[in-house]
Amino acid sequence: MRISWLFLVFAALLLGACGGSAPESSSPADAYTAFFERLDNGDRQQALESLAPDGALGDTFRGGSYYMMAEVMEQQYERHGGLDAVLIDEEREISSEEVHVEGRVRYGDGMEEPRRIIFVKEGERWVGRL
């Protein structure tokens, strides 16, 4: 019995250290989903850093659209009972470096809102172009 308990604790620690999930930018759809989920979890800065291209958040002009989108989404989460699901409707590959993701954010009250983000490859990760 004690060995089983220790094994479960060890497995939980190992999963936590490994992240337990696929990297956020392994695909544009993963990056899309991770952005909205992180916002719902209250991780605005981490959500923005994972979505925005390098240097965009420090640039008032380019960064403003990312912060504005985050603010609007957080207000919607508050108004409509949080995030229920992120649904991917289409992942259209324009080239090996650009993919358009069209999906919907479903809120806790059942309302859905369409969201489209263009993703471009930046090194090994996919970043959004707003």
TrEMBL record:
Signal peptide: 1-22
Pfam families for this protein: DUF4878
Transmembrane portions of the chain: none
The DUF4878 domain, residue ranges: 18-126
Keyword field contains Signal: yes
Organism domain of life: Bacteria
Alphabetic keyword roster: Signal
PROSITE patterns named in the record: PROKAR_LIPOPROTEIN
Name recorded for this polypeptide: DUF4878 domain-containing protein
Lineage, highest ranks first: Bacteria, Pseudomonadati, Pseudomonadota, Gammaproteobacteria, Chromatiales
